[in-house]
Write a structure and sequence with these properties.
One of its GO terms (molecular function) is DNA polymerase binding. The protein is built from 56 helices and four strands. It is mainly alpha-helical. The strands form two sheets. Strands 1-2 form a two-stranded antiparallel sheet. Strand 1 and strand 2 form a beta hairpin. The C terminus is likely disordered.
């Protein structure tokens, strides 16, 4: 039969072939084809013959074709055919599809859909035919029977795709089905059907099947709906990450959650690679991705970002586009800071992930072959460090970043950059060389800028793996060549950072020594200073065998530095020779400038503590140096040759020998040697060292006794001496005085340390102090008589912290005991000096100690408080013990403040009260805001403010600041602001003099003396912070609405979660409105109060406008405008806007009176008039901005009224007489006095803005009258 069919097919006409095929049953014909195809014989030729004899113009032929198509598809799917045969059959089927009539195409496509939905696909090969069928069907112009009706070909195709996407897909054919759709012409709605279906299938597949599906989906997304595809992929992996981190179970992601983390990260890495590749082929996809991130960041960066999306962004973003991401990171840190400082925001906004945590998680995940992410990480790290590192200030030093928790967002960003680079360095070997090169380049090329953050990073890198840097030794030695040209601080930081490397690599160490020796004899002073600093560092870190270990000074060495330790111990003998060579080099420095010697003297003590075997060499050097300036004859006064310390070169006089630093070094080294090194091992050394120590002790003893006997005249430094900076004698006397005072300080500490609390020694200490004080008083007196005090620079004290603490303990036991046991009120007045009693000095010391501990020793606060609490049990460890212990200390100081406030008015000491408030402020920061102790502290502070009236402005400011700082961590302070504004209004009176005020008395602390400017500026500052919080919330809502509006889910349900935030915003603005309502009616004094009030009012209207614009965005929903929003608008129209115009008129009237008064009083004095003009112009500058803000608010209210069909303007009274006219008399006066045009422009622009009488009179009805 097959041969007969083939022979008839060869004829020119197909009539006989058609007759033969009609005679054969369709099933027999299909079986014949099947047999031929399975045997691998000429199935293609037979199929062509059948198609030739089955024209679609005849119904029978078309039905025969349909039968053959169905059987052919089954054959291809069966897997029984050879690959070539299957491909040939599929090719023929594709070619002949376009001949089918529409109805049979629908039937054929429906058969395909049924096969897919019922899971009858065997290998998915036949799916290649479906796109051709659907494309052909869509091209049919005539209507086709579909179901019970008729549809166009396009509509049929849409229905079929809808049915296919709503049915079940076998997971093993998802990728093929997705690939199939890319060849079908689809409308936007159909693209969305398919995209949603594929995204739903993600959760049904195994992890390994997801990357190829993602690729196919991205290719498919070129047809449209790129945004949904990308969002779906990012959301899926975000959820996977969350599930994995939380280790949750019991949902559809369980089978992927339980896989090892490594596999998940590898899959994520592959998916990111696919996305990057797809973006290279489709630029629009990249733009859509960046748009997605940008939109997400408008609302909430942390909530719309996950480690996967950050990694994706790092992979596709090159350095020029990082600016936006940098700004997003800083915004995230600012948001976090804002949240931490406001209980109001914490209650409204859920906990957010820190951006640092997310990005560092990306670094950690990148170990799983995420090589395409690492370059982006390195670039981001350096951009953050470059942009947000420490900044230079006026004296050239960097702003120090403290270890306290309240770091600025920029400091957090810089630290994040350093953490990214360090962690990336640890994980990726390939990138290490590049990171190190970039760090070294910045250290060398940015010498004029602060680079401490790069030096810290370098130190951390080298500490992590010093052996790794051996491969980069060429770069290190190249950097050493620039040491002579770098600032001293940079040299010290760099050498300290590379110190572990010096122990590993002999070649690097030798290179450094060579550079330092050259620098020692360089002509530049900075180079010689750098050489001394470098040699001192080497001495500290290359220990000689037998040196005592000093735990507080020794460098911690990690496990990766085992080789370093071995190398160091093995070469201890060689180290001794090496160190003694360096000591010889350093001795030569003792003949150089004072700056070089000073570095040496400051460094010897640290060297001695770390390398105690060098004690003899160091002490001998110091002894011989000191003898040069010591007067050996015991009866000669003074005992020191001060003349020899000063160098005179022509007219130039400068310090040659910093004798005070030399003596300080001797004193510290001697004390340390006596306590640590005195019991030596060898007898010869014992005698030699004891001799040096004894000589130094004798010298110090002799200097002490003769310094006490010496008068200021012996130094030629009495009251008659010249101390001016303009003469050579004056400069010399200033240097001598500084040396004498420094020597006195050193001797005071030395004699106290050896005194063993003997009376004689203490008398000597007092005598030395009197010598110091006499000289200090003379210098202060002379400086006070001079024209400027700039030249009177305070020198650093030589007294060590240990001495100060020992002395204070000896005098008062502890400061807190002394202050609380003997209050200032009961102290003998005779003991007071310059208004400060001893107890007050103790309190001042306490305040500084509390501040220092909180700022610099945050982790040790608990130990500090435990040490303060002498009655506490040593072993007591309870959670929240910091809060409990802080509360105990707070109670003591609360009692002291209450006693002070309850004392007689003449006994009230404002300085003491302010110090107590400052101490309470410091301690209150240690209280947990959720603890009852915190609430108690807030209640107590509020009570003090309400019940006590003090006219001391500084005390009032400190106490009110404490109240606000506590209040914002408990709840929003808007009610507090409203009450305070009423008090201020009551005390200062109304702008309308005819209105009598009924004084409120919410807070007694507000009185006529403190109301303005003290309390007024404080409340305005707090109101500004509340406005900032409200603005932040509105921006957050707008970002969420933007995202919702881009998707079709933006319904009333989608916006429902915003309702509590909206309500909170309206409540805050409503209460603030009443606050401003009071202040704009208050007769505030001219100056900062008026200026800041106008600016805050402008912000108030700007934020009201922002809220109106937000409702313009969302009022499409059926929810409409809330009733409380309508009330807010009504309140602004009745209680604020008219009063603002009245306040503007009040300010302008005061300005006119001020100008008139000044002009009459100072006729002929143009400078006075010009100053007055400048002042009033500055004060009225914000007026045009305020008027513009009000009008913008009203403009958008009109838009919102039209859109919402609610008349919001019924309560707004528009201005009718805003006459910005030029006043000729004022203009003439300005031109006459200043001869400038600027006054004309300023006056014209600022205008007069007078309002009609109705507006001026209406608010008077709402004022409180007696």
């Amino acid at each position: 039969m097959d041969q007969k069919i083939l022979s008839l097919a060869g004829e020119k006409t197909a009539d006989k072939l058609q007759e033969l095929l009609q005679a054969v049953k369709e099933d027999d014909l299909a079986n014949l084809l099947q047999n031929q195809a399975v045997k691998g014989k000429a199935a293609g030729a037979l199929l062509r013959a059948i198609f030739k004899g089955s024209p679609c113009s005849e119904e029978a032929g078309a039905l025969r074709r349909l039968k053959i198509y169905v059987r052919s598809i089954q054959l291809v799917e069966s897997g029984d055919l050879q690959k070539e045969v299957a491909s040939e059959i599929l090719g023929l089927l594709m070619v002949e599809v376009h001949n089918f009539p529409g109805s049979l195409l629908v039937e054929l496509a429906s058969e395909f859909v049924s096969v897919i939905k019922e899971g009858r696909l065997k290998n998915g090969k036949s799916l290649e035919l479906l796109p051709i069928i659907l494309t052909t069907l869509a091209a049919k112009k005539e209507n086709v029977a579909y179901g019970k009706g008729e549809l166009s070909g396009e509509e049929c195709k849409k229905q079929l795709i809808n049915t296919l996407c709503s049915g079940r897909w076998d997971r093993q054919y998802v990728i093929q089905l997705t690939s199939m759709f890319k060849d079908v012409p689809l409308a936007a709605e159909e693209v969305e059907f398919v995209t949603e279906k594929v995204l739903r299938m993600f959760s049904k597949l195994s992890l390994q099947e997801i990357p190829p599906l993602v690729y196919q989906l991205l290719v498919f997304s070129s047809k449209g709906n790129r945004k949904k595809a990308l969002e779906g992929i990012i959301t899926f992996f975000n959820e996977l990450d969350k599930q994995h981190n939380e280790e949750q179970s019991g949902d559809e992601l369980l089978d992927r959650v339980t896989v090892p983390a490594g596999e998940l990260r590898h899959v994520e890495g592959t998916v990111i690679l696919h996305i990057v590749f797809a973006i290279k082929l489709d630029c629009e996809l990249g733009r859509e991705l960046l748009k997605h991130f940008k939109t997400g960041q408008q609302g909430d960066f942390s909530n719309n970002t996950c480690p996967f999306s950050i990694a994706l962004l790092l992979s596709i973003t090159r350095i020029q586009r990082f600016e936006e991401q940098k700004a997003s990171i800083i915004k995230s840190f600012k948001d976090l800071q804002l949240l931490q400082g406001s209980k109001f925001l914490q209650n409204l906004v859920p906990h957010r992930s820190c951006v640092s945590t997310l990005i560092l998680e990306v670094v950690k995940n990148s170990v799983h072959s995420w090589d395409h992410v690492t370059q982006g990480l390195v670039e981001l790290g350096f951009i953050l460090m470059d942009s947000y590192g420490p900044k230079k200030i006026l004296d050239g030093k960097a702003i120090e970043t403290s270890s306290c928790l309240s770091k600025k967002p920029t400091q957090h960003a810089c630290k994040l950059g350093a953490d990214i680079l360090l962690e990336t360095f640890k994980i990726h070997e390939m990138i290490r060389q590049e990171i190190l090169e970039q760090v070294f380049n910045r250290v060398v090329t940015r010498a004029s800028s602060p680079i401490s953050h790069f030096l810290d990073l370098l130190s951390n890198i080298i500490m992590y793996a010093p052996l790794v840097l051996q491969s980069c030794s060429a770069k290190v030695t190249e950097t050493f060549d620039y040491l002579s040209f770098l600032p001293l601080q940079t040299v010290q930081g760099l050498l300290k950072a590379v110190q572990p490397l010096l122990k590993v690599s002999m070649s690097v160490r030798d290179s450094l020594i060579l550079v330092l020796r050259k620098a020692m004899f360089a002509s530049q002073l900075d180079a010689r200073k750098a050489a001394v600093a470098g040699f001192l560092l080497l001495l500290k870190n290359f220990k000689v065998l037998g040196s005592l270990s000093s735990s507080q000074c020794s460098q911690s060495i990690g496990a990766s530095q085992v080789h370093v330790d071995v190398h160091s111990r093995y070469n201890s003998v060689a180290n001794e020779t090496f160190c003694l060579e360096i000591m010889d080099s350093l001795r030569r420095c003792l003949g150089q400038q004072a700056d070089v010697r000073l570095i040496l003297y400051e460094g010897f003590y640290d060297v001695l503590r770390r390398n105690s075997q060098l004690a003899n060499s160091i002490m001998q050097t110091l002894l011989s140096q000191l003898k040069q300036y010591y007067e050996p004859k015991p009866d000669v006064l003074p005992p020191l040759k001060l003349e020899a310390c000063i160098l005179t070169q022509g007219d130039r006089i400068c310090l040659q020998e910093p004798l005070d630093y030399l003596l300080c070094c001797v004193q510290h080294c001697l004390a340390w040697c006596k306590s640590k090194v005195m019991p030596p091992q060898q007898e010869k050394e014992e005698e030699e060292e004891e001799g040096v120590y004894q000589d130094l002790e004798d010298l110090l003893e002799s200097i002490t006794s003769r310094m006490i006997k010496s008068e200021l005249e012996d130094f030629e430094l009495d009251k008659s001496a010249d101390f001016s900076q303009s003469t050579g004698v004056g400069i010399k006397n200033n240097i001598c005085a500084s040396l004498v005072m420094g020597v006195c300080e050193v001797l005071i500490e030395y004699n106290f340390s050896i005194s063993n609390f003997s009376k004689n020694k203490f008398e000597e200490v007092l005598s030395l102090f009197m010598c110091y004080k006499k000289l200090s008083d003379i210098l202060n007196e002379k400086a006070g008589k001079g024209k400027t005090k700039v030249a009177n620079k305070t020198n650093d004290s030589f007294l060590s912290m240990k001495f100060v603490s020992d002395l204070l303990t000896a005098l008062f036991r502890v400061l807190i005991w002394r202050y609380t046991s003997i209050p200032t009120s009961v102290e003998d007045l005779g003991k007071k000096e310059k208004g400060k009693s001893i107890s007050l000095l103790c309190l001042e010391g306490l305040q500084k100690i509390f501040s220092a501990v909180q700022q610099f020793f945050q982790p040790k606060i608990q130990h500090f408080l435990r040490a303060l609490d002498a009655t506490g049990e040593e072993g007591e460890e309870v959670e929240g013990s910091v809060t409990h212990r802080a509360a105990f200390q707070i109670r003591q100081f609360q009692r002291s403040l209450l006693n002070l406030l309850n004392s007689q008015e003449e006994d009230f000491n404002g300085k003491e009260a302010l110090l107590l408030v400052t101490v309470l402020s410091n301690l209150s920061k240690l209280l947990e805001p959720s603890s009852p102790q915190f609430v108690q502290m807030l209640s107590w502070t509020s009570k003090i403010c309400k019940e006590n009236s003090q006219e001391d402005a500084s005390f009032c400011k400190g106490l009110m600041n404490l109240l606000f700082s506590l209040h914002v961590l408990y709840k929003s302070p808007v009610i507090l602001l409203r009450d305070l504004s009423q008090d201020i209004h009551g005390h200062l009176g109304d702008i309308d003099e005819d209105v009598e005020m009924e004084k409120t008395n919410h807070f007694a602390m507000v009185n006529l003396r403190t109301a303005a400017p003290t309390v007024c500026l404080l409340v305005l500052s707090q109101a500004e912070k509340v406005l900032e919080e409200v603005d932040w919330l509105i921006t957050k809502l707008k970002g969420q609405v933007s995202q919702e509006m881009l998707s079709e889910e933006a319904s009333s349900q989608a916006t429902l979660p915003n309702h509590p935030i909206e309500k909170a915003i309206i409540m805050q603005l409503g209460t603030l409105l009443t606050f401003f309502h009071e202040l704009v009616q208050t007769a505030l004094p001219s100056g900062s109060c008026v200026d800041i009030l106008l600016k805050d009012l402008c912000k108030m209207y700007t934020i009201l406008t922002a809220l109106v614009r937000y409702y313009l965005q969302v009022c499409q929903s059926s929810r409409g405008i809330p009733k409380n929003m309508e009330k807010l608008v009504k309140l602004s129209g009745s209680h604020l806007t008219p009063l603002c115009y009245s306040f503007i008129s009040y300010i302008q009237n005061k300005r006119s009176q001020s100008l008139k008064y000044t002009g009459e009083k100072k006729k002929g004095k143009t400078a006075a008039v010009a100053t007055a003009m400048a002042r009033v112009l500055r004060e009225t500058k914000p007026i045009p901005n305020l008027i513009f803000a009000i009008e913008q608010y009203e403009k958008f209210l009109i838009h919102l009224s039209k859109k919402s069909k609610v008349n919001l303007m019924q309560h707004m009274k528009l201005s009718t007489s805003r006459d910005f006219k030029i006043k000729a008399n004022i203009l003439d006066m300005v031109l006459r006095e200043e001869e400038e045009d600027d006054g004309d422009d300023e006056d014209d622009d600022e205008g007069t803005a007078s309002e009609h009488e109705g507006q001026n009179k209406e608010p008077a009805k709402k004022r409180r009258k007696k």
